[in-house]
Amino acid sequence: MSDDPSPAAGSNPDPRSGDDSGAEELTHTTEEGDVQMVDVGDKPDSERRAVAVGEIRLQPSTVEAIREDEIGKGDVLATARVGAVQAVKHTWETIPMCHQIPITNVDTDFELREDRVECEVTVETTGKTGCEMEALEGVTTGLNVVWDMVKAVEKDAEGQYPDTGIENVRVLEKEKRTH
């Protein structure tokens, strides 16, 4: 594999651009190819909202143990909520080129199903850029916390996790309301 980041000869140009180069539309790259944070200073503030979801597949016995508060480490969902909110607040520290935004609200919702825990995180902000990454970080961290809390009961005899998996993480919706 080549270290050259330029598109291969004959490859399709960036469909978002109006020309063949596509370079003018790469918002996180300078003309010289250096990575940069996007300047949002001239954008107007707007109310923004993003909802992300995901799930962790578990053994039914583990889900029942969560439901009955029988996990030795403590209250799984309460701990996962704290982790999700903390992740939302620190997204700018873990995603390169992500702006630190003023979070105005975070809602977390966990649903126990027969063989999985579903997580939904809603993030709201008023600012110059969206909050999709914050919602995604909240979901993935919330689900990682669930895994951490239940890993002792999810392991098989060889110490592996054949029935455990974080899946279907995605942004359900995003809104932008300008004034």
UniProtKB/TrEMBL annotation:
Its EC number is 4.6.1.17. The keyword Lyase applies. The keyword Lyase applies. It is an enzyme of class 4 (lyase). One of its GO terms (molecular function) is cyclic pyranopterin monophosphate synthase activity. Catalyzes the conversion of (8S)-3',8-cyclo-7,8-dihydroguanosine 5'-triphosphate to cyclic pyranopterin monophosphate (cPMP). This is Probable cyclic pyranopterin monophosphate synthase. It comes from Natronococcus jeotgali DSM 18795.
